[in-house]
Each structure stands twice: as C-alpha cells, then as structure tokens.
Design a protein that fits this description.
70% of the residues lie in helices and 1% in strands. The chain has 331 residues and is mainly α. It has two domains: 15-197, Farnesyl Diphosphate Synthase (Orthogonal Bundle), CATH 1.10.600.10; 199-309, Orthogonal Bundle (Farnesyl Diphosphate Synthase). The chain has a two-stranded antiparallel ribbon. A hairpin with a 2-residue loop joins β1 (102-103) and β2. α9 (199-226) packs parallel to α16 and α12 (247-253) crosses α15 (287-307). The longest helix is centred in the middle third of the chain and has 28 residues, at 199-226. The protein is globular. Belongs to the FPP/GGPP synthase family. It is an enzyme of class 2 (transferase). It comes from Streptosporangium roseum (strain ATCC 12428 / DSM 43021 / JCM 3005 / KCTC 9067 / NCIMB 10171 / NRRL 2505 / NI 9100).
C-alpha cells in the first residue's frame, strides 16, 4: 500500500499543517473505501492509481479552503474525496487518449490491462463520486455537474483545436481554464461552501483557485523548456517532441519576426530528436519565454487580489505562499 500523502505545500503555520495532515488521512481512508467493490477486479483496477500515490493536491485545497469556515463540518472530507475521485477518473481517460504507458511511475491502467478497462474504470470512479455527492445536497451536485461539463468541454476543444479565425492563444488559455482550472476552482469552492464559509469567501476562493490552476499549468509550459531534468524530474522538451503547442510555442508561431524563422520551422510540428537541443536553445533565448512568464504572473496576481480580501488567518498566508511558489517554480 502506498504511504499516505504528506503536506508538502509551502505552509507557514505548523498547527495548520498538522490539521491538514490529519484531514488528508481521513480523505485517504474514505477514498480507498469508496472504490471497494464486490468484484475483486473492479476494486483492483479502481485502486490502481490510488495505490500509485499522488500529492492529493486538490483534496488539500478543499481542506485548506475549509479553514475559512468550520473545518470539521461533516461534508468537508467527503467533498475532498469527490474532487480526488473526479481527478483520478480523468487520469484514466487521459492515459487512453494520450496512449500513455506510465502514470505516477507505474504502468498506466491501459498499459496494464487495456483501453476498455481503463475507460470503464474511470467511469466507475465518476459513478462513485456521484454516490457521495448525493449526500451533500443539490447545490454541490449542481456545481459538480457544471465542473464536469467544463472538464469535458476543455478536452473536446483541445482535441479539435481552434476554430478558423479563432485566436490560438485565447483558445489555449480557455482550454487550460476548463481542463485544469475548473476542478481546482471547485476544490476551493467545495471546501469553503461545505464548511459554511460566507458567500463572499466562497466566491473569492473559487476565483483564486482557478487562477492558481491556470498559473500552475502555464508554469509547466515554461518548465518543459527551461527545466533542468536533474532538479525538476522532468525531461526538457517533452511537449516539443510530442508536438504540443504550449504558450511559448504559440507566441513564436504567431510572430513574423525574421529572426524567428528557424525556430518557427522547427516548431511547425513534433520536433525531431536530433533537433530538440537546437530548439530548446533558441526557445530559451526567445522573448516568447518572457511573455509566457508574464502571463503566468498575471494569473497569479489575480489569485492574490482575491486572496488579499480573505480573513487574515494562517490559511490565507498558506494560499499566498502557494502563489509565490507557482511563480518561483517556473524559473
């Protein structure tokens, strides 16, 4: 069995970290029991990614948001489990679409079994999340349905790409907001709402968490280009090899500067292995990286603006520290 997740976000208060660690232990217990089935294979497939570990980042944000109300409210931990089940379900489906052989250092479900099993297991996790939701009230069910709609819409829009005449950068940001930002936003919203926080606090945390989610994903774009594989654990240029057009790439492709001609040629499709080093060198030196980082900072500043209006408690300091980390990790 994988070890329980630990509190590894930049929290500034030891008591808060202890409270969150205790909450995460409860989340982990309910998460595992919620996927138990009379069918041993269903249980095994459903626990495949749970056992592989993970930071439980979204569940953590639910618990952190609940600090602005009553953290011990009975719906908080189930709400965090719903968020985590939803996230895990999307990973099963993502691995099928991406034909990914590995997830969290272990064989993906589609690699261990097959695509059909992976898809159906993801569906099962969505169903288990819905069963928990049924006890949390109509408002929470509605929010989850809206979030799920955004997740699917984001995936569809990413798959089909921008419409003719649509701005590619705006399309890309919208996809990030739907695919990544929406569930992180709902993490903050569930925590605040289920803990009984005021409507203003719920709204502020929802907006701030979505902005943090978009900023985090933009940071991944920069890390794919600028990271040191030894320090970050990422292989630089992974997105480039796969032909994924992240924000810095989109900025270059939209440029008509003569000095960018060679880089535009390299980025026209998946970058060949022999060209990765040259592409990384040119892209790292290109103003597109500065522009992309400025966009990240703008999203994080949106989050900070909402967070600054929250009560001055350790949880607010933790959220603000997280904003700092999202910027710092991008280089």
């Amino acid at each position: 069995m994988a070890a329980p997740p630990v509190v590894d976000l930049p929290f500034v208060d030891e008591r808060l970290a202890q409270d969150l660690a205790s909450g995460l232990a409860e989340v982990e217990k309910l998460l595992r029991s919620s996927v138990e089935s009379e069918d041993a294979f269903v249980t095994e497939a459903s626990k495949h990614l749970i056992e592989a570990g993970g930071k439980r980042f979204r569940a953590m944000l639910v618990l952190l948001a609940a600090q602005f109300g009553s953290p011990e409210a009975p719906g908080v931990v189930p709400g965090a489990v719903v968020i985590e089940l939803t996230h895990l379900a999307t990973l099963y489906h993502d691995d099928v679409m991406d034909e990914a052989p590995v997830r969290r250092g272990s064989p993906s479900a589609n690699a261990r079994w097959d695509n059909t099993v992976a898809i159906l297991t993801g569906d099962y996790l969505f169903a288990q999340a819905s069963e928990i939701l049924a006890d949390l009230g109509a408002d929470v069910i509605r929010i989850q349905a809206q979030t799920f709609s955004r997740l699917v819409r984001g995936q569809i829009r990413e798959t089909i790409g921008p419409r003719p005449g649509e701005d590619h950068v705006a399309h890309y940001i919208d996809v990030l907001a739907d695919k990544t930002g929406s569930l992180i936003a709902t993490s903050g919203r569930f925590g605040a709402l289920l803990s009984g926080a005021s409507p203003e606090i719920v709204d502020r945390l929802t907006r701030a968490c979505e902005a943090i989610g978009v900023g985090w994903q933009l940071g991944d774009d920069l890390l794919d280009v600028a990271s040191d594989s030894v320090e970050s654990g990422k292989t630089p240029g992974t997105d480039l090899r796969e032909g994924i057009r992240t924000l810095p790439v989109l900025y270059v492709l939209s440029s008509d500067a003569p000095e960018d001609a060679r880089l535009r040629e390299l980025l026209a499709g998946p970058v060949a292995e022999d060209d990765v080093a040259e592409t990384l060198r040119l892209l790292r030196a290109n103003p597109a990286m500065v522009r992309a980082r400025a966009e990240l900072v703008a999203w994080v500043d949106r989050a900070r603006a909402d967070l600054s209006g929250l009560p001055d408690i350790p949880a607010r300091a933790a959220y603000l520290a997280l904003c700092d980390y999202v910027v710092e990790r991008s280089g």
